Amino acid sequence: MVNQMLAALHLLAIGEGFALGVRCGADPTTLYNVTRESPGYSRMMDLRLREFLLKGSFEPGFKPDLIKKDVNLGVESARSLGVPVLLSSMVSQIPASASSAGRGAEDFSAAAQFLAGLANVQFSQTGERLKAERVTA
C-alpha cells in the first residue's frame, strides 16, 4: 500500500513536471537527461516514462483502477489512524479521473498522460529522441 502510494506520487509528478517543462520550451530529451542526473530523478522515470509514456504504449502492466484502489486503501488506512496524507489524497483522484475518461484498462502510466493532457501535452518517442508536443483542441 505504501509502495503503491509512492509509485503513484512519483509517476504523476513526472507527468506533471514534464508537461510543465515542455510548455516552458524545454527539450524533453534534455529535460530527461538533466533530471536523470539530479535529485528529481526516480526509478519510475525509467520504468514508466521511457517504457510507456514516451513510447505511447499503454498495454496494461498495472491498471489505473488497481493503483486507484491501492492508493485509496492507503488514504483510508491513514484516515482511520489519524495520519495526514494530503498528497496521496489528491493523487488518488487522478487515476480515478483517467479511468472515468476511458483509460482504466490501460497501464497506470496512462494516468500520467491524462494529467499531462490537461496541460495539452502529448508525450512520444522517435528512436532515442524523446518528444513532447503541445496539442491543440
Annotated CATH architecture: Orthogonal Bundle
The outline comes out as globular
| Domain tally | 1
CATH topology group: N-(1-d-carboxylethyl)-l-norvaline Dehydrogenase, domain 2
Number of strands: 2
The number of helical elements comes to 7
Main sheet makeup: 2 strands, antiparallel
Oligomer: single chain
* Low-confidence segments: none
Estimate the helix proportion, in percent: 55-70%
- Order of secondary-structure elements: HHHHHHHEE
Structural category: mainly alpha
Distance between the termini: 37 Å
Whole-number mean pLDDT: 83
The CATH class, by name, is: Mainly Alpha
What spatial order of strands do you see in the largest sheet? 1-2
Write the layout of secondary structure elements.
Elements: H1 2-23, H2 28-36, H3 43-53, H4 64-81, H5 86-91, H6 93-103, H7 109-117, E1 121-126, E2 129-134
Antiparallel strand pairs: 1-2
